[in-house]
Amino acid sequence: MSDTHAFDSQEHSHLCESLEGLYRERTLRPFKAGQTIPLRRQEMWIVYRGLVQVLTLHSTGDEVLLGLVGPLMPLGLSLTSLEPYQAVAMTNVDLLRLSVEEVQRSPHLARELNEQLTRRLRHTEALLALAGKRMVVDRLHGFLMLIGDEYGQASDEGTLINLRLTHQQLANAIGTTRVTVTRCLGELKDAGLVGINSKRRLYLKKSEPFVEAGV
Fold it and tell me: Residue 142 half-sphere exposure, CB side, CA atoms within 13 Å?
């Protein structure tokens, strides 16, 4: 089973009902963390469970994170003009495949998916804002807060990020190295802003604002 919840959001209940109606007739496609998700121009995927990162590549071969796609959000080549464009499972995921044609035939479904694209746009703007932070430790903290706000779960310790995120994945997301992420996580722990529970999951603590370090 994947790490994040499926279609259980009250805020997006209409889309939940539409997609669960489709799901009864179809098989979800599972992908393991790290797997590349095949993309075709006339199809799109809807995330049922888990988290997907969408990427492009510089001419140098460096990956650039374009955004994170979580439950209920669509992704696909029909939704972008970028080339190359790649989708990689950040956690174990279950996806529902739709054709562009069937979305176009359903004004209700198209409208609901457009709302989810607006959510994705807000996420992308937040990631762009993080990229402007000079200190890596602030970018990391901001990224964890972004994940926590959207996908976190309330717990006794604070906001639990119930995702299997490696230090390398975090490094790729904020444009740094795995070693630097490890060091910055140590600083955030020392500052009382994050912790790790017995299941090795990160959680965000409620604390005073972090005083910038020199990383």
Answer: 19
